[in-house]
Amino acid sequence: MQPPATGNLFTVSAPSGAGKTSLVRALVDRNKDLCVSVSHTTRAQRPGEENGINYHFVDRESFESSAKNGEFFEWAEVFGNLYGTARTEVTARLKQGTDVILEIDWQGAEQVKAAVPTSCSIFIVPPSLDTLRERLQGRGQDDNKTIESRMAEAKSELEHWREADYVVLNDRFDIALNDLECIIRSQHLRRENQATRLSDTLSAILSN
Ligand code: 5GP
After folding, report:
1. Whose CA is nearest to atom 3 of ligand 1?
2. Does 125 fall in a domain?
3. DSSP code for 166
4. What pTM did the predictor assign?
5. Element at 157 (helix H, strand E)
6. What CATH number is attached to the domain comprising 175?
7. 156-179, pLDDT tens digit by residue?
8. Whose CA is nearest to atom 20 of ligand 1?
9. Residue 93 maps to a domain
10. Which of 56, 76, 140, 165 could lock 107 by a disulfide, CB 3.0 to 4.6 Å apart?
């Protein structure tokens, strides 16, 4: 009897406005064995966001105490706010065989890669800085000052595309979504994953 396969861990990083949240949402909608982790953050809730759905919104004191107690799988300071992935969002699901996606910045992606070298890091690139600005303005969630500071940060976040295993251009949404699905599928087909899934088949063939 083959042991159950553990889930795969993916990180998806991108500058703000590159469309990663919409892409990841569509990916999870279409692939029921995938789940997305809900991060903790100290940033203010935006209009339309729901606590426990978009983020777990917490104050700085409670975040720092969780970080000190080692409750985060990874965490980082981004735009002056703290963001982190609770261990409870990841470990049990992977053990159950569910794939988990973390939508996190490059600092978090770096920590995850160091902790789980078999995890798969994906970077989403917008077609241009102008498109990024239009998307940030279009979602109507941030004031101009916030948008300008996010544009300034976007370039430095983009520098980190080189560290990712896969890079996806989000120009046409449907193409980018298809690219993400191909990456997930290719991760399933990696030898390490197939060795578990196909162990009975392979031993039957090879024992003859
Ligand atoms: P936003 O405030 O626009 O939702 O997110 C700002 C940045 O924080 C984005 O780059 C987002 O990916 C990143 N982020 C969100 N959650 C986490 C997390 O749990 N850990 C880390 N390291 N970054 C996160």
Report:
1. 16
2. yes
3. E
4. 0.93
5. helix 144-158
6. 3.40.50.300
7. 899 999 999 999 999 999 999 999
8. 84
9. no
10. 76
